[in-house]
Amino acid sequence: VQLQASGGGLVQPGWSLRLSCVTSGFNFEYYAIGWFRQAPGKERELVASIWKDGKNTYYDGSIKGRFTISRDDAKNSVSLQMNSLKPEDTAVYYCNVQPPLEPYWGQGTLVTVSS
Question: Is 70 exposed, middle or buried (CB count within 10 Å of its CB: 0-12, 13-18, 19+)?
């Protein structure tokens, strides 16, 4: 099983990034998928998730209205479009099934928002 996040980088406040999560080794279409992040000195938290139907979504209040999660079952992938980025969005971002399974954590992708 692999869930590999990519697309992070260093951006200025107000800019956008699009994260991608490519998966393999499990029946992707049967699982809800979540995007999680871990900021320096903080615990990992769920920021967005999408149900297996591709229609129902959840967003944490801190990113609601700025981030959009989507999935492509044909490509076994999930994306996170992040707009109007803020310094407090700085974190390592991970994808996992939701609820998360410990063995499925990948290395994550670092997003740094700084002027």
Answer: middle
Banded pLDDT at 19 (limits 50, 70, 90): very high
The Cβ of residue 86 has, within 10 Å, a number of other Cβ atoms equal to 13
pLDDT attached to residue 69: 98
| Residue matched to tokens 């992070």 | 8
**In 3D, which of 32, 60, 37, 65 has the Cα closest to residue 48?**
60
- DSSP letter for each residue of 61-97: TTTTTTEEEEEETTTTEEEEEE-S--GGG-EEEEEEE
Q: Which pLDDT band holds residue 68 (cuts at 50, 70, 90)?
A: very high
The distance between the two most distant Cα atoms of the chain, rounded to a whole number of Å, is: 41
Amino acid letter for position 96:
N
- As a whole number of angstroms, the distance between CA 78 and CA 42 comes to 24
Half-sphere CA count of 5, side-chain side, radius 13 A: 28
